[in-house]
Amino acid sequence: MIIFSTVGGTTRKVAKRIAARIGDTVCVDAQTARATPPVSDDRCVVLLCPAYGDEELEDHFESLLLEWNWSALSGNSFAFCEIGIYTGYEDFGHGLARMVRQKLHAHGLRELVPPLSVDAVPISDWAMIDAWADLLVRPSGVIDE
User: Fold this and answer.
1) What is the pTM (predicted TM-score) of this model?
2) d(CA 8, CA 12)
């Protein structure tokens, strides 16, 4: 399952590209996901969120992170990608990954791959996104556990 939040559409494009690359058919926005209970069969949840500033989440993603029943996915994996303007930004420790990881680890989810921070201006770094997506799957095309 891939869950994304977007305002201008960039994160949606990245989410759909990752979904196509890893063969995941469930790709929903954070607002839709929030209205649906988590399914423990989703062995890995891939999360994508635009970054608006130091530790500033998009509103729907923040609601999902704080209100969704993440404990229902305890023992499952997650992967996180933040998309923003990182030109000249040297310390990714102030981005979104720290708080997303902290919240999901507290609910028993384990991180499948290191988080990805992507510069989306003027265009997304597709080679970097593709390489990260490739880490999510085994050669057999199944999400790695």
Assistant:
1) 0.88
2) 9
